[in-house]
Amino acid sequence: IHVAESGGGLVQAGGSLRLSCVTSGFTFSSYPMAWFRRAPGKEREWVSHTDRDGIAAYYADSVKGRFTISRDNVRNTLFLQMNSLKPEDTAVYYCARFVGRTPANYGSWGQGTQVTVSS
Questions:
Q1: Running DSSP on this structure, what letter comes out for residue 101?
Q2: Which stretches does DSSP call E strand in the chain?
Q3: If you ran DSSP here, which 8-state letter would residue 82 be given?
Q4: pLDDT value for 41
Q5: In angstroms, what CA-CA distances link 78 with 87, 95, 97?
Q6: Which of 42, 43, 24 is nearest to 103 (CA)?
Q7: Strand, helix or coil at 48?
Q8: Confidence class for position 107, pLDDT limits 50, 70, 90
Q9: d(CA 91, CA 60)
């Protein structure tokens, strides 16, 4: 299984970013997918996940109404559209094949993509 996150960067509060996660090594369309993040000095936390078809989506309360998860099962790619960004969204963002909201359920992670939101 290989995932490659991209799209992070430095943005001012209130701005937007769109993260991408290109995957390989497994049948992408057969699995729900998730985004996690780890802020400086904090534990990794679940952000959002979506079902295999991208129809059902679930969000942490902290991002609900601002972030949108989506996927392209033809291109084996997961997305996270992040709007109205806040400084507290600053973190490294990771995608993963979803096996639960608890980070301890996951054996390994990709390199992630850094999102920095300035106030």
A1: S
A2: 2-6, 9-12, 17-24, 33-38, 45-50, 57-59, 67-72, 77-82, 91-97, 113-118
A3: E
A4: 95
A5: 24, 8, 10
A6: 43
A7: strand
A8: confident
A9: 15
| Burial tier of 91 (Cβ tally within 10 Å: 0-12, 13-18, 19+) | buried
Q: Which two tokens stand for residue 99?
A: 């096996």
Beta carbons within 10 angstroms of residue 33's beta carbon: 26
Confidence of residue 55 (pLDDT cuts 50, 70, 90): very high
Strand partners, 93: 37, 113
Amino acid at 52: R
Give the β-pairing of 113-118 and 9-12. parallel
The answer for 47, left when phi > 0, alpha when psi is -120 to 50, beta otherwise, is: alpha
Residue 51 half-sphere exposure toward CB, CA atoms < 13 A? 4
Q: Are 94 and 27 in contact (CB under 8 A)?
A: no
